[in-house]
Write a structure and sequence with these properties.
Blueprint (H helix, E strand, L loop, with lengths): L3 H9 L2 E6 L1 H5 L12 E2 L2 E2 H4 L2 H6 L1 H16 L5 H12 L2 E6 L5 H5 L4 E3 L2 E8 L28 E5 L8 H13 L2 E5 L11 H7 L3 E6 L11 E4 L2 H17 L1
Parallel strand pairs: 1-4, 1-8, 4-5, 8-9, 9-10
Antiparallel strand pairs: 2-3, 6-7
Helix pairs in contact: 6-10, 8-9
């Protein structure tokens, strides 16, 4: 199921990078909101999760995000998330780049996580940038929050549709992709930029490129190794086999 070359590259690696998408969280029960899951209470999520909806349809916007926050609060990481934590015992440097906003990698115990699209459990003021959670504040799930500093509208600290990514985090993700020896793309459609370019940055700089997904994507033909299946099953198998190889 896995190539000998993969384990040789892992054995000599000092830095591996994982890019994770909706697929790994879907195995924990987090909705993807793509395709047939693109509706919430008859609202198109692509239209609802936007800066315009925050300003013009604030009640429904926050109803949606508070529902998502409640959902994430009750969801636990799966074996795929924990396998990435296990890699930290086996490799000197492990970087997790995620397109997910659910915080499940941190909940599992990963220590170096770059959140390309932010974190749904954090908030910030849309006017002055105040961060309530960083100040020890806990926002209620049942009302629209306003900033205690400037009375501006509080928003989830996530990248909404039609917004740019945080340039600092994107640079760090590009650097982690360019400097690793093995790069895993896990459960991502490989369609959404700029995340979709990260595996190509890794490969262009000599990394061994592995894709784990339940179906082929535009990346598959360019990967050194495509492994079909659920990450919650495949990643623990890789870590167990790799640990046995290291013990020999």
């Amino acid at each position: 199921m896995f190539s000998e070359k993969l384990f040789k590259r892992l054995y000599h690696a000092t830095h591996i990078t994982f890019l994770t998408g909706a697929g790994i969280s879907a195995e924990s029960g987090v909705p993807t909101f793509r395709g047939k899951d693109g509706l919430w209470n008859n609202h198109d999520v692509m239209q609802l999760a936007t800066p315009l909806a925050l300003k013009t349809n604030t009640d429904v916007f926050w109803e949606f995000y508070n529902w998502r926050r409640r959902l994430v609060t009750d969801i636990e990481p799966n074996l795929g998330h924990y396998a990435l934590v296990d890699f930290e015992r086996l490799i000197s440097q492990v970087t997790v780049i995620t397109q997910n906003v659910d915080g499940l990698h941190q909940k599992a115990g990963s220590t170096d996580v770059l959140e390309l699209h932010g974190n749904i459990m954090r908030s910030r003021c849309s006017e002055c940038g105040y961060l309530p959670e960083a100040d020890g504040k806990v926002l209620a799930f049942d009302k629209i929050p306003y900033c205690p500093k400037c009375n501006g509208l509080i928003r989830p600290d996530v990248v909404l549709f039609n917004e740019n990514l945080n340039s600092t985090i994107l640079y760090q993700a590009q650097e982690a992709s360019a400097t690793c020896e093995v790069f895993f793309s896990i459960g991502t459609s490989s369609l959404v930029e700029p995340a979709a370019s990260l595996p190509y940055i890794a490969k262009a700089n000599g990394a061994y490129l592995v894709e784990i997904n339940v179906e082929r994507t535009p990346l598959s033909d360019n990967a050194d190794e495509f492994i079909e299946g659920k990450s919650g099953k495949i990643l623990p198998m890789i870590t167990v086999l790799f640990e046995k190889i290291r013990e020999k």
